[in-house]
Amino acid sequence: MNVEIIRAELKQEEDNSFIGRTVFTVENHKSPYEITFFSKKGTEWDYSLSFAGEPGSEEQFLEIDSLLENDDDLYNRLLDAALDTQDNAEEE
């Protein structure tokens, strides 16, 4: 399954928690997705999956949600995309 990352970001909030977002597309899926990450300390992450624009197929959405639950490589790739933006921001 081909996944392309469109954009990502990560921000640290005033309470030192982190909120990150990665927008991505999946081959043969009509709508792009957005995964939002949240962490109180930047170590353990919760996430929420949604469509990044117009809603698409619920069946495809559930397929991606299940994939994220079971495919650590995909999950980490999407999280790392957001984390990498924080590293780049610190270097500037």
What would you say this structure looks like, in words?
There is one protein chain. The chain has one domain. Strands 1-2-3-4 form a four-stranded antiparallel beta sheet, with helices on one face. A hairpin with a 5-residue loop joins strand 1 and strand 2. The longest helix has 20 residues. 36% of the residues lie in helices and 35% in strands. The protein is α+β, with helices and mostly antiparallel strands and 92 residues long.
Provide the descriptors you would attach to this structure in a database record.
92 residues, alpha+beta, elongated, 4 strands, 2 helices
Q: Taking Cα atoms only, what radius of gyration do you get, to the nearest Å?
A: 13 Å
Beta-strand proportion:
25-35%
Number of helices: 2
Helix vs. strand class? alpha+beta
**Portion of residues within helices:** 25-40%
Question: TL;DR of this structure?
Answer:
This protein is α+β, with helices and mostly antiparallel strands and 92 residues long.
How are the secondary structure elements laid out?
Elements: E1 3-12, E2 18-26, E3 33-39, E4 46-51, H1 58-70, H2 72-91
Antiparallel strand pairs: 1-2, 2-3, 3-4
